[in-house]
Amino acid sequence: MTVILYRYDESGLYTGPVSPALSPARPFVNGRPNHLRPARSTEAAPPEAPPGHAAVFDGQAWSLVEDRRGLPVYDKSTRARSLWTRLGPLPEDLTDQTPPSDCHVWDGQAWTEDMALRLARVRRERDRKLAACDWTQLPDVPLAPETRAAWTAYRQALRDHPQDWSADKTWPQPPQE
C-alpha cells in the first residue's frame, strides 16, 4: 500500500505530494507498515487551485487564497510599480491595474487622466524645446536677420503653446535652416 502525504511550507503553502519512507528502525509495527511522517505534512488532500489561487493549510484544513506572487502591482498614490511577493488579497493602497501614463491618478475605481498633470508634462516639453534653441537668441550668433526673426517667432509660439491647450493641439515647427 502506497501512502501519499501532502506537504506545505512554514506559511502553509502547498508544496506537493510526498511518499514517506518506511522507518529503518521499525519498518513494521503489529504487521502494518510504519512510515516516517515528514514535518509539515497531512493526509488531507488539498483542493485543486484555479489560476490566481493557491492551496494553504492552516494546521487543520486546506483553503484557497489569492496568489498574485510575481505579478506587478502599482501604488495608487504614487503609481510606483513593484512585484507582489505575498499570498492573499492586495491591500487597499495597491492595484494590479497598470497606470496608462504618469498623467493618470487613481479615482477609487480606476486610473483617470489628470489634466493638470498632462499640462505640466506639456510645459516640461515646451521648456525642453525652448532650451534646445536658446542659442539662436545669443547676440554673437551669425544668423541672418530673417532667420533670427523666424526663431524668435517660433520661441514665442512655444511659450504660447500651453494656452488653450488640448490633447490634439500640434506643436509649432522650428524654422528650416
UniProtKB/TrEMBL annotation:
Matching InterPro entries: Phage_tail_APC
Domain of life assignment: Bacteria
Record domain Phage tail assembly chaperone-like: where: 120-176
Record field: compositional bias (Low complexity): 39-52
Span list, region Disordered: 30-52
A Pfam family recorded for this sequence: Phage_tail_APC
Record protein name field: Phage tail assembly chaperone-like domain-containing protein
